[in-house]
Amino acid sequence: MSDQHITESILKDIEQNQLCVAYINTDGYNPRFGYSIGLFKQFHHPEILLIGLDSDSTEAIINNAKNQIVEGTRFIEGVNYPDFLIDLPVQFIEVQPAHFPDYMGYASWYNDYQDFPVLQMIWPDKDGNFPWDEGFNEKFKFEQPLLDRNVDFKFLEERNLGVYTTKEVLEGAPVLYVYHDEEGDWQFHHRSEVGNEDGVLVSLESLVKRDSSLNQVYHLNYGDQAMRASMNNDWQVLKAE
User: Residue 167 sits in which domain range?
Assistant: First the structure.
């Protein structure tokens, strides 16, 4: 579907339903997510982003939120809201604008690329623990990144994840080649061809601290590669076959 058809469909949905729900499915690595388009212009309420649930649930939950907003509810951070999941509450956090390009594409377009607020709806595990609670089920952390933080580190993995680089990178050479292999391991090199004897294991955070532009390729799927001619050039992504 062309961009024109997509934008026409968005405007039609908003005209008929006061909002549109955009949904992006998982590619096998990045989590699935959906978000509202129209809450800010229609109701002066932050748009709502929901990560990690299926499309039907996401659309139903965001439309439920819209109905409550129509009735006068203003969702805020730090409050348990019980009317979205069976037997479990949800909470909201404020999304940092640095994450908008990655998650709020058509909402940014609809809001004229101007400043607008976004709340991420956070769901708990089956025991009612939220991601920031002790005891939260670790297997769900990867499915629901928290976007009120980590502007300096966008990768889904933990900061202390061990990744592969080379001595020449540690000695100052720029990272010009990134590979996220099929097993989930990351490689960050100055060139695509390196010998096994040159490999060094370091923390992912240490490389991102050296070069924040690595955040631009956090989304590489399993088997994808990214290359650039220099640090002044854009990344070119080569998708896995």
Answer: 162-238
